[in-house]
Amino acid sequence: MSQDIPPFHYSLCLNLNTNRPDLQPYLNQLNPILANILSILENYPDTTGEGSLSTNFSKILFSKIGTS
Amino acid sequence: MNRSAPDPGPDGNAPPLATAFVLKIAERCNLNCSYCYMYNKGDLSYLQRPKFMSSEVATVMLTRIADYAQRHRLPKIALALHGGEPLLIGRQWVQWFLEEVHRVAASSGIAFTVGIQTNGILLDRDWVRLFSAHKVGIGVSCDGPKEWHDLERRDFAGHGSHKQVTAAIELLVASKDVEWAVLTVVNPHASPRSVLSHFVNLGVRQVDFLWPEYNHDAPPPWPSGAMARYFCELFDYWYSELPTPPRIRWFENAMKLLLGGRSDCDVLGPNPITDIMVESDGTWEPLDTLRICGNGLTRTGLDVRTCDVEEIWNAPLYRIGLGSQELLSDHCRSCAYRRVCGGGYLPHRYRHDTGFSNPSVYCADLLAVLSHIHRRIAADLEPIRVAVAASASAREC
Question: pTM for the complete prediction?
Answer without folding.
Answer: 0.89
